[in-house]
Specification:
- Helix content is 31%, strand content 38%.
- The model has no long low-confidence stretch (mean pLDDT 93).
- Strand 3 and strand 4 form a beta hairpin.
- Strands 1, 2, 3, 4 and 5 form a five-stranded antiparallel β-sheet that branches.
- The relative contact order is 0.31.
- By secondary structure, it is of the alpha+beta class.
- The two termini are 13 Å apart.
- It contains two helices and five strands, in the order βαβββαβ.
- It has one domain: Alpha-Beta Plaits, CATH 3.30.70.120.
Length: 104
């Protein structure tokens, strides 16, 4: 079976600069763990800078990822979950990517 990695960049602050509640980050991590029995988190933060409708945003982010079987059901989980993350983290967008991997 082919494998696919899903990566999510989650903000540590809301767009107004206030911190994301730790409970929201923990809940997100635990949802991935409950669904796929694994989750990985990059230590430290990722800096992101982007412009939306002329407004500049600078984000401190954490990177979560999980490697799963490349199935339509797993992809649909992430498609359905993204609006949940958008609401939970009150963001214009949450960067969620996937790509095939070859586990040796």
């Amino acid at each position: 079976m082919h494998r696919r990695r899903y990566e999510i960049l989650l903000p540590l602050q809301l767009n107004d600069g206030s911190p994301i509640p730790e409970a929201d980050l923990n809940r997100t991590r635990e949802e991935i763990l409950a669904r796929f029995d694994a989750v990985s988190i990059t230590p430290g933060t990722v800096a992101g800078i982007w412009i939306h409708e002329g407004q500049r945003y600078e984000d401190a982010l954490i990177r979560l990822w999980v490697d799963v079987e490349d199935t339509p059901e797993n992809r649909q989980f992430f498609v359905d979950w993204k609006p949940v993350l958008l609401a939970r983290f009150r963001q214009l967008d949450v960067y969620l990517t996937s790509f095939t991997i070859d586990v040796i």
